[in-house]
Design brief:
Two copies of one chain form a homodimer. Chain A has helices at residues 16-26, 55-63, 82-90, 101-110, 124-134, 139-153, 168-182, 190-199, and strands at 5-9, 30-31, 34-36, 50-52, 67-73, 76-81, 95-98, 115-120, 161-164. The first copy, chain A, is of the alpha/beta class. The longest helix of chain A has 15 residues, at 139-153. The first copy, chain A, has two domains: 1-29 and 94-200, Rossmann fold (3-Layer(aba) Sandwich), CATH 3.40.50.300; 33-93, 2-Layer Sandwich (Guanylate Kinase phosphate binding domain). A five-stranded parallel β-sheet of chain A has the order 2-7-1-8-9, with helices on both faces. Chain A has a four-stranded mixed β-sheet with strand order 4-3-6-5. At the A-B interface, helix 5, strand 9, helix 7 and helix 8 of A face helix 5, strand 9, helix 7 and helix 8 of B.
């Protein structure tokens, strides 16, 4: 059976990275690897953290329509290579793709069977507290992040599942349950399941 | 939030009872209690195993259209009292309702939001082995059960989820994951979730 594609979004500060990392550690699910033109940071591994490539290589893939979605950020490109995702799924591997709300919509168009999960903090108040606790953001930047968070949360209804990240452990378990349950959906598999039952 | 209604079907010998019993033991989910006109067996408790009632009491509820579904078996009546189910769900409790394929269809009509789970043995061969192992069935009765099993399995596509009961422990975990995931569905709750996020 083909693997399943899980698309995970949520405002910065919701804890997506922590939750997805823990899910990957505890299960056989893998994180999707993006391509980027930015330089590797210390410890980052090509093919694991990112596919690092030159501007020319990146634009060549863009020309061939090889990215499910791509964006530019501070002059650097980031993209989700369609071939990588399709091959992983074909090999039977589940994939998690962390991406913002705009990216998620693009992925749904190319992978209509994907399962979309939205992670949100327990409250706007708590999100504010988490962002302030980092101590690295200017007041303007905090205000901007909260505004962005509100905009993202307004897109919740286009998602299949939501997880309120109050306690990380519970949020991780919720996500593992969602992934597990997805493998038990009948969907359009009834005929295949009945055949296996009769012939096994 | 209202509780969720899980309808569980599957051929005799699939292990529905064992799985549901274990799920109820490990979670807060409750089993729905049916009404019946048959006599209590030793150890059976009114209101827990069944609502035991007289023929007159049962038919009075039928007249008032108070059963989601009811059947007659060997001259005794069995029914699912609608008021019981609605009150449990209203109180926020999840309910499991074990029922055959015909009953499940009736329940879906009265509770369109219910989640239907089909439990099946790993194979027809294994089902045959399980039924023969009981040692209580005549050859004709074994053949009839297998025929019934095939008929039931053919209804799989009307179910939301399937669980192959190969190892009981895995089947129990699969069912708990399905129940858990169901609580994280966005469905028509987006507005409520966003409101909670903003105002909490």
């Amino acid at each position: 059976m083909e693997g399943l594609l899980f698309v995970v979004s949520g405002p910065s500060g919701a804890g997506k990275g922590t939750i997805c990392g823990e899910v990957v550690r505890r299960t056989e699910v893998e994180l999707s690897v993006s391509a980027t033109t930015r330089s590797p940071r210390k410890g980052e591994v090509h093919g694991k953290d990112y596919f690092f490539m030159t501007e020319e290589e990146f634009l060549e893939i863009v020309r061939k329509d090889g990215f499910v979605e791509y964006v530019e950020n501070f002059g650097k490109h980031y993209g989700t290579p369609e071939a990588f995702v399709r091959e992983k799924l074909k090999s039977g591997r589940d994939l998690i793709l962390e991406i913002d709300v705009q990216g998620a919509a693009k992925i749904r168009r190319k992978f209509p069977q994907c399962v979309q999960i939205f992670i949100l903090p327990p409250s706007l108040e708590e999100l504010k507290r988490r962002i302030l606790n980092r101590g690295t953001e200017s007041p303007e930047s905090v205000a901007l992040r909260l505004k962005q968070a509100m905009d993202e949360v307004e897109c919740l209804e286009t998602y299949d599942y939501f997880i309120v990240n109050d306690q990380v452990e519970q949020a991780v378990e919720a996500m593992i349950s969602i992934i597990s349950a997805q493998h038990n959906k009948v969907g359009n598999r009834a005929e295949e399941i009945i055949r296996t039952f009769k012939e096994a």
